[in-house]
Amino acid sequence: MKIKLLSLIAIVMATIGLNAQQSVISGKVLSNGEGVPFANIMIEGTNIGVSTDANGNYQLNDLPVGHYTIHAHALGYQHVSNDIDVQGGSNTNINFELNKDVLQLSQVVVSASRNETNRREAPVIVNTMSAQQLSTVQASTMSEGLNFVPGLRTENNCQNCGFTQLRMNGMEGAYSQILINGRPIFSGLAGVYGLEILPSGMIERLEVIKGGGSALYGSNAIAGTVNVITKEPLTNSYEIKLTDQIVGVGFKGLTPTNDKTLNFNATLVGNNARNGIALYGFIRDRGGFDANGDSFTELPQMNNLTIGGSFYQRLGLKGKLSFDVYAINSSRRGGNKFHVPVHEADIAEALNHEIYSGAITFERFMRETDKFSTYFSGQYVNRDAYYGAEQALDAYGNSVDMTWVGGVQYDAHIEKLNLTIGAENVNGNLNDKKLSYREWDEATGQVVTYPNSVVANQMTNTSGAYAQAAYKFGAIKASAGARFDHYIINDLHDSETGAASGDVFSPRLNLLYNLHEHTQIRASYSQGYRAPQVFDEDLHIEASGSRRIIHQNSADLKQETSQSTTLSVDVHPHFGKNTIQLTAAGFYTKLKDPFVNEFGTPDTEGQVIYTRVNAEGFAEVYGINLELNWFYSDVLNVSSGFTIQRSEYSEAQEFDKKRFFRTPDNYGYLTAQIIPADRWRITLTENYTGSMLIPYFGSDLTNPDEGELRTSEQFFDTGLKVNYEISRKNLNIDFFTGVKNIFNSYQSQFDTGIDRDPAYVYGPLLPRTVYFGVKLGQFK
Asked: What is the pTM of this model?
């Protein structure tokens, strides 16, 4: 008994001794003598980190004895680090002085190589858009912000339901991959309307890489990737933003509609930053808008509710367990007669989405700075849909999609060599069906019941392994990577079709040459592919009184492959109070066996089938992205981008044309922010869209089935925003008001009536829109 008691006392004393060895590091992050709020303080080789408070103060508690490298970085400031030896029971004060980095070259990104690096050292150009920048351009959702990234353009593809897609370097949405925290979990079904579903309030930043990304991220990344980084809890903060937009102000005497949104988010960090939680939410209520007075909407009615969050728990000094979840309930309806059920309207396209997503990630630092991670993400989508005209009862449908991805990754740092290896599996199960209905049969004089019918029942599975090595020697940094994928696409509905499968090897090579302190040259080559599967646009049906368009794949459709090259020069000199960045990035992509549509002949009920096939020959997409950023002191900053490009097939396609449709040869953007006095900010925005070729199958034609190719006008979408901010100790209040599309540069001629062509829509997403709102809380 005495021995046990002495042993217990020894254990307690040892524990007290160990606790006594724990130390504290505290201090302040400053810039020009003023505290920097929400700066990130991280200890290299560990998962320990905190953010500064509103005054720039931070504190790291319970640190074991040892040698540490501490990093301090904040958005708009250069990265700074300090080395320190921590003694047992010490309380050390370390302050950091940060210099301005208006170009954000020191910003940490993960998309370039699937591990953290700053933009300046990334071997490929990574464009970023922060939550603050999304707020500056008044983007309620992700779709509204992407127009302010070089080489990107968001477009509306349906007059009825407002289906939007992203075009990157001239290629349509299916050529780009949307990632959530680096995971390809955003499925094809979610992607049909996903750009308007993801609210800006859940986004910490967007990372965009243009060019083939398949070597790291798998199928469908031929044009590039958009990585949505969600908010992570690093400090105690909150934000509430209420906005009311009046859409269609002064538009040809027509009645405008309201678009009301509420964004809120909060982060809470536990004691010693061992755990933290971030919560966000989004509520939207937008009415439909009729732009030509024919009683049919050009912008659909929309309602959206999004709730989500993330949580982390640190496991010792080097381990971390993270959870991410979100739930989205979104509905939209376009057409006419909103006061009656959809099947009693002349035209109705109505969708209701329920989306649930969750992810778990475990990370652990190995050796000094190596990192091992494993992850699992899942997404469930249930969509009820109606695509119909003239009171059709057979236009109800239901789609269910379950997607999951799991993988492991190891990042090794061996002197000047960085090595990343990993493996992942992506699985999707999609079931799309038309629902049963009952209809009176005049011939028999009886009610006939039609059962459910399957439209698509597809299982896809892709297993991949990838590796990338980056080595720096002198002024040159080279990285070489490759990915091997084995995919299986099984049509469970059609037993005769069977399963399509393929093995794809996708290499990637990147070179970065630091020609000068302020001049960098980058070059890259990559290969990519698209598997012969159901894509997002296949799950959208264009409905009118005369035509109903359904998309499907040819039974012998084979994979599409690509080869991409880019060459860029980035110059960022400083002189006086001026900082300038000029980037010129040329790109060229060649598509082998490109996917194109063959248009069928309407049947007796007006149904037309668009069948995706492989085109003869090849296709080419080439051009140049120009980016100019100018910052003058803290008074003025200007960001702009312009794209000049060409997209065409080697052989003539629809309408005997080689050109890609709906793709302008030039487009661009500009934002200019002026700070004339404390508390005031004035922002001017401009989006330019050049003319493009648009197919038309509408009521104006003698034979709508043959169609006509038209050329659109060019558009200058100008916006103005004014902010007035009041700051208190623990509260900021930001009042704002503004106008989008001031000069109403909007499509002048929409197709009209029940027989309209709903796909004949182009140009800016919104007509003239006046908005005002308030944001309050502790925010950056």
From this structure: 0.89
